[in-house]
């Protein structure tokens, strides 16, 4: 499975306004910390086989890209 998401310092979930779009749409988001995401994937039986990181300096976003597979 291919996963890409932003990383956050504090985990949160709920409805948030998408500020960097022209229309200020409210949407449900799960904001992950790296540790929380990794623990959740492991608990669900996934193994991380590739990880990469990117940063959008202008938007203040830190991205993680993961390739995961089901553990044997």
Q: Which key phrases capture this entry?
A:
1 helix, single chain, 72 residues, 5 strands, mainly beta
Number of strands: 5
Pick out the low-confidence regions: none
Global shape: globular
The percent of residues in helical segments reads 10-25%
Number of domains: 1
Sheet having the most strands = 3 strands, antiparallel
Task: Report Rg.
Answer: 14 Å
Distance between the termini: 15 Å
Percent of residues in beta strands: over 45%
The secondary-structure element order is: EEEHEE
What are the SSEs and their pairings?
Layout: E1 2-7, E2 12-17, E3 26-31, H1 34-43, E4 46-56, E5 61-70
Antiparallel strand pairs: 1-5, 2-3, 4-5
Task: Give a description of the structure.
The protein is mostly beta strands and 72 residues long. It has one domain. The chain is built from one helix and five strands. The protein has one helix at residues 34-43, and strands spanning 2-7, 12-17, 26-31, 46-56, 61-70. A three-stranded antiparallel sheet has the order 1-5-4, with helices on one face. A two-stranded antiparallel sheet has the order 2-3. Strand 4 and strand 5 form a beta hairpin. The chain is globular.
What can be said about this structure in brief?
By secondary structure, the chain is mainly beta. Helices cover 14% and strands 54% of the residues.
């Amino acid at each position: 499975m291919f996963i890409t998401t932003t990383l956050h310092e504090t985990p949160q979930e709920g409805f948030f306004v998408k500020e960097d779009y022209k229309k200020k749409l409210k949407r449900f988001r799960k904001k992950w910390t790296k540790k929380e995401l990794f623990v959740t994937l492991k608990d669900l039986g996934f193994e991380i086989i590739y990880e990469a990181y990117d940063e959008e300096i202008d938007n203040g976003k830190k991205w993680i890209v993961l390739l995961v597979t089901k553990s044997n």
